[in-house]
TrEMBL record:
It comes from Paenarthrobacter nitroguajacolicus (Arthrobacter nitroguajacolicus). It comes from the Bacteria. InterPro entries: HPT_dom_sf (IPR036641). This is Hpt domain-containing protein. GO terms for biological process: phosphorelay signal transduction system.
Amino acid sequence: MSEYDECTDALVDRTVLTELQAELGGDQAIICAFVRNYVALLPWRVSRLHRALENLDMEDAMDAVLSLKTSSQMVGAVCMNRRATELEISIRLLPNADHLDELRPQVVEIDQFVFGTISELETPIL
């Protein structure tokens, strides 16, 4: 079983945001805006993956998964990042775009973490 098989950690690692805030000079407003943008775009990014698979568009699928992976990593969405990384590897291993529909179960797994990730990111730190 690989590290990507389960998402048993917290969905969000808040230390990532704390470190980013420190790198940006401590500006909380920038971090809040960054998180709001991620939350607003997360459902769109996942639906883009679905469309790419439906259209058997390898280039768009790769672009969409890299966007999801990178943005998730930057905001500390560890489970979303793991699932996106796993999907990226699967896309790279496909012989051609005709097999993209075989990856639909992985995108459905990603769907299962959207609400929880958004919820954790929108929960204030006490």
